[in-house]
Amino acid sequence: MFSAFANIAKIPDLRRKVLITLGLLAVCRIGVFIPLPGVNLEAIRAMIEQSQDSAVGQLFGMLDMFSGGGLMKASIFALGIMPYISASIIFQLLSSLVPALQKVAKEGESGRRKITQWTRYATIGLCMVQAMIVCSWLQGDGAVVGNQKLVLTGGPWFVLQAMIILTTGTAFLMWLGEQIDEFGIGNGMSLIIMVGIASRLPKAIEEVARQFDPAIDASSSSAIGPGELFILFVLFIAMVTSVVYITEATRRIPMQTPKRSRVGFRQQHYLPLKLNASGVIAIIFAQALMMLPNFLQMVPIRWVQDLAAFFSTDSFLYMTIYLLLIIFFSYFYTAVIFDPKEHAENFKQYGIFIPGIRPGNDTREYLERVITRITFAGALFIAIVAIMPQIIQHQLKVGWTVSDFFGGTGLLIVVGVALDVLNRIESHLLMEKYEGFLRGGGRIRGRRG
Fold first, then answer.
1. Can you give the pLDDT at residue 228?
2. Residue 38's pLDDT is what?
3. Using an 8 Å Cβ cutoff, are 95 and 101 in contact?
4. Distance CA 144, CA 300 (A)
5. So what's the pLDDT on residue 36?
6. Rounded Cα distance, 368 and 276, in Å
7. Phi–psi pair at 35, nearest 5 degrees
8. Which residues are bridge partners to 339 per DSSP?
9. In the chain, how long is the greatest CA-to-CA distance?
């Protein structure tokens, strides 16, 4: 593995991509520590300390996770990249439902550019709305800690400049993500989210260490004993191992080609179908949509807050809709990247067939059955991972920061995106005849047939 990192420096193009990616991600992290003009950072920190274990604290903890810590710091990147993700979801769904957008999507590269541009416009609109909600919350009657207000100099001017700054911050993150896509390595938007989540690791470890302090009374509800700490550690290892396995596992469909080898036998190849073809996209999309109603809890209007309370992170309604969205987006994204009908037609055209399956409609139906079954298994696993924070928090008496990082959405995104980047680097290394991270270039395999 260590030799693989050394080999990265030997390939100029790969080295350049990695350095560009690291540099742009560093810019993302620097922006998180630049606060909005006029906010009282001391009061915000005090508010966080007071509410971190409450339902409101969980809400802000979840929103803060996807902004990389920017929301709790009231930074210029407080909205994070999630408005862009939400806009992307809207247009992907509309492209499947609205005939006019379907026609544009089928125009090839020019159509893709049009939809991308419309997505950017929608992102700006969402940013303006969310920025207005954040500003209303910062200036609300309840935005006081002790005798300190969260905003030092409020008023219309603060709202206007904060909306412009927050919208510009998200637009800048969107641009950085696109630069990573074009000049770096990996999915830029996913990497920005991953780095933001990973930055919470020191805080999570610090919180565990603080709760495990021997000076804390063992009978305290906030104390973590040796048994709970051991369970947390074992659970973390098991979750990481499971995420790696499910992310990399494939179902290999045997295929035979008409071309014969020198000894006269048909050559056999395999069509690899990933158990979790959507990767982290499904859980990011589901979380992005569930964040929209949660923003309403910041609106200083009583009936709006009461309505948003139905979608609090620990409610049954929230968990049910969240899990259903994960399963839906797992199937939706898999359908986007894998078309059984197209594969069946290509197989028939080039004389490729699956042993025991007739070419044409039979092949299409077989591929549909297989992809439906394995996608359900992958989606079910992701759904289980998504609800782990609630279980960990209630059973092991740890805060939201710890429970979500050591077993939940955060862990799945960090591991999934990291694996995607490592696989891309691995492909570059093997293409240049260098040793990769896995000796022999092997990957986790699924069962055949």
1. 74
2. 84
3. yes
4. 13
5. 87
6. 15
7. -80, 160
8. none
9. 86
Distance CA 405, CA 233 (A): 12
**Calpha distance 249→333 (Å, rounded):** 17
Amino acid making up residue 260: R
Contacts of 339 (CB under 8 A, 6+ apart): none
- Secondary structure of 216-245 in HEC code, one letter for each residue: CCCCCCCCCCHHHHHHHHHHHHHHHHHHHH
* Fold of domain 2-441: Preprotein translocase SecY subunit (1.10.3370)
Q: How far is CA 315 from CA 59, 306, 310, 390, in A?
A: 11, 13, 7, 10
Task: Give Cα separations from 131 to 71, 75, 128 (angstroms).
Answer: 11, 12, 5
Residues of the chain whose pLDDT is less than 70?
1-2, 4, 48-49, 51-59, 140-146, 212-224, 258-268, 298-300, 396-407, 435-449
CA distances (Å), origin 400, targets 58, 166, 221, 321: 6, 26, 15, 20
Domain boundary assignment for the chain: 2-441
